[in-house]
Amino acid sequence: MIHYLPSYDPYKGSLVEIIEYRDQSHRKANTPAGKAQKFVIPDLFEVELYFTERDLSSSEALAFFNFYELQNWKVHRNKPMSSWQAAARNWISKQQKQVLTHQ
Length: 103
Hints:
two-stranded antiparallel sheet
């Protein structure tokens, strides 16, 4: 699967994610429009790849992975997670805000 995120900043460049699936169990099935996709717990290497593509350390990816592993991949009030990428974006945003406030 190829995921392309264009950047209009000439100094930054565009982001291209290439994800290889080892077996068919990780592939998302085509579902009818009314049904939601089932959440699949990511592997640590997927999380590390996601964080390193955004210029963050592997230790930050490990902290994110361990935190949500401990929470059984649920968000607040024991609601099941629907997208780990969205949770990672929120995690990154909160970490960047924390760094800015501590300077």
